[in-house]
């Protein structure tokens, strides 16, 4: 067992082509088998091997959204995938070392589709007689010069800036490459420069990477390219993957790899990754449903939904950060063709009614919508690219059902499109925000309805 754990998770050592073939493709098949069986037994859907062309493409394909899995499923799927990213890069690096190649080529793991050809190619060369010259003991710590630390920070900021500009302004996409591959590249680069002339330790390398990512984020805020809210929402995935990169950067520095290869590989892999992201993006419609039980009849609940009053409760949670939250609503007209205006903190939703089934169901399209959030910035109000239609609601509905105890359950559903990737990561956040919006509205209807029901009874 110790040998297996060391093979998969520890950075030391090397892997011959036979072990790489068995371990690498065995794990790939095992993950596919487990994932596909879970999908099949939960949703009775067959998940084909084509969905595993890339560990990131499988997260972004529209295949999974119609299944409407729970938040727990999405979170589990994300957590379940992260160790395989580590194992994949780790095995590729060990195989490269065993074949006498530069460990920098392990970055090809982040090149969608191409990574599989690289994996296949690595099963061909035999073990080299001399892998690397170990100059320093791993346990020996040598204080690194300030210049190397600064070079690492500068290189990390440049990498993040180039990736940001290329992804958003050149390819017009908030991509998986931007949120996963780029933090890894920043981590490995910052850590490598810090350790290239003397190992300072993995703990210090990790801290240095976190500091570099924080400075890169601060630079985006300083130049008004991003606001605090988006940085905060993307921080969990960026810091996690960046931390993984810092450990690989430390290991690459220990092996004395040529840094010039990084300067060549990064721009090539960045452009390739962004091109693949653009090719494999989807425009799937997702949904989130929330419900609440109300001690009142359907007729009363319907009337109070139509006669919706201003929400007096102060915003909480994400809403305090500047995300749009509902304040009041009104309906002009009656029946199909009436217009519902829903006032949010950032502006109004304009929602033409498409179904008016008193007192059971009301459905509407979203004709106009305001910005999803107000970014925090030292420059006051800024309009960042992701506020412009990358996330948009399509339509919604409120359904009323009578329970056996005479109470009413009101069920709110919103359908939306999201064009920020990795899609599963942003779906977890989007679903949480939309669910909180639903609850804010439903609680107001509950309060109004129960007050009226008690008054009339």
Description of the molecule:
- This protein has 457 residues and is an alpha+beta fold.
- It folds into three domains: 1-128, no CATH class; 135-282, no CATH class; 285-456, 2-Layer Sandwich (Alpha-D-Glucose-1,6-Bisphosphate, Chain A, domain 4), CATH 3.30.530.20.
- Helix content is 51%, strand content 14%.
- It contains twelve helices and seven strands.
- The chain has helices at residues 2-9, 17-43, 57-60, 71-98, 114-121, 146-170, 176-195, 202-222, 228-254, 260-280, 298-306, 423-456, and strands spanning 285-294, 326-332, 339-344, 347-357, 361-365, 391-402, 408-418.
- The chain has a seven-stranded antiparallel β-sheet, covered by helices on one side.
- A hairpin with a 5-residue loop joins strand 6 (391-402) and strand 7.
- Helix 7 (176-195) packs across helix 9 and helix 7 runs antiparallel to helix 10 (260-280).
- The longest helix has 34 residues, at 423-456.
- Mean pLDDT is 85; it is low at 58-63 and 131-144.
Task: Note the topology.
Elements: H1 2-9, H2 17-43, H3 57-60, H4 71-98, H5 114-121, H6 146-170, H7 176-195, H8 202-222, H9 228-254, H10 260-280, E1 285-294, H11 298-306, E2 326-332, E3 339-344, E4 347-357, E5 361-365, E6 391-402, E7 408-418, H12 423-456
Helix pairs in contact: 2-4, 4-12, 6-7, 6-8, 6-10, 7-8, 7-9, 7-10, 8-9, 11-12
